Amino acid sequence: MTEIKSTGLPGVLKTLGSMTAIRDTYLVEQSLLRTLGPILGVLETSLYRVDDGGTILRFLNHSRVSVLTEDGVHRVVERVEEVANDREISKEILDLLENVRMLDRPCSRKAGEDLLICHPLRGGRALQGYFVFRRDREVTPVEEAIISGILEVFSNYYALLDTSQRDQLTGLFNRYSLEINLDRLWNLLLMRMRENVAESDRHRRHTPHTYWLGVLDVDHFKSINDKYGHVIGDEVLIMVARLLEKSFRQSDLLYRFGGEEFVAIIAADDFESASQAFERARNAVEKFSFPQVGHITISGGFSGADYSVLPQEVINRADAALYAAKDAGRNRILHYETLIREGILKETPTGSIDLF
After folding, report:
1. 260: annotated active-site residue
2. Same domain for 17 and 123?
3. Do both 288 and 310 map to the same domain?
4. DSSP string for 29-79
């Protein structure tokens, strides 16, 4: 008797109802993995997200593990790990994903005594990712139908949520999405900090990224609206958004914060790499010739995403550096911590997160 039979159709419908009651795309992804694991009788499920070219952007791993509590009782706890695309993925997984991409259908391959099984995740006709799990037997026709149905419901609902978190003009993530992702980012930073402490005496193959948050603003945008009208102004914002998207990596996060202001959250190994990334974006806008308007510039400020400081305060720091860039003549992107060291800005007491 399979897990699907023991769960029953009412149970499947109930889990789908719970999933579609969620309003956060990240939590919906978690819900998908939590839903399919018990149905398939497996303790670990993974979701791989890819870009339009098929490059893996990130993957989410959900597992149930037994832990021994202090009172000697074994309890099953759930763990969710979000992994950036720079972490090494096993060759057997990569080969399996490639098979699914080429054949455009579910595939499996032997992995020791078990099977690795992968289903494509589609949005319309486009491949958006993969659902992967491991178990000791092939998927039955009934299970195949259940998995396909749940993945289709998930993809359609995810697309609706994603649309609600997008700016209607530029297509970038909106301010609401930023608030959600800031909480996620800070949780990820805290998790990596704890990993570093736990593994400080061990050799690490992968150095975790540092995150940086930048606030970018179109210079003299009011003058553009006044001279050319709001239609042209909107076109400028759309083209600036496209230029910023091309300048940053697809795994970086870009938001329209409001009006002519944008927020970018990027991963970079050090200050020099982060500074180069923001400078590349500024240079791309400066060199572009906008129809009717000609050349425009952007100014910006950025700060390190410190897990011990409240997210809103990091935005405030980047914003303070942005205003310093405006005061310095515009068309530049300045670093908050550097401005503090040079005495150009004065650091003010801020709220912090009590970690321990």
Report:
1. yes
2. yes
3. yes
4. HHHHHHHHHHHHT-SEEEEEEE-TTS-EEEEEEEEEEEEE-TTS-EEEEEE
Q: pTM (2 decimals)?
A: 0.70
Residue 237 lies in domain: 175-341
**10 is a domain residue:** yes
Which position among 260, 261, 286, 347 bears the catalytic label? Answer: 260
Comparing C-alpha atoms, which of 161, 89, 87 is closest to residue 123?
A: 161
- As a whole number of angstroms, the distance between CA 138 and CA 307 comes to 43
Does residue 170 lie in a domain region? no
Asked if 282 and 151 sit in the same domain, the reply is no
The tens place of each residue's pLDDT in the chain, 356 residues long, gives 344 444 455 555 555 555 555 557 778 888 888 888 888 989 899 999 888 778 888 888 888 877 777 777 777 677 878 776 556 688 899 999 999 999 999 999 998 889 999 999 988 778 989 999 999 999 999 999 989 998 988 888 888 888 888 999 999 999 988 987 787 778 777 766 665 545 444 444 444 458 899 999 999 999 999 999 999 999 999 999 999 999 998 778 899 998 999 999 998 889 999 999 999 999 999 999 999 999 999 999 999 988 788 889 999 999 999 999 999 999 999 999 999 999 999 886 555 444 33
The answer to the question of residue 352 being in a domain is no
Residue 355 lies in a domain: no
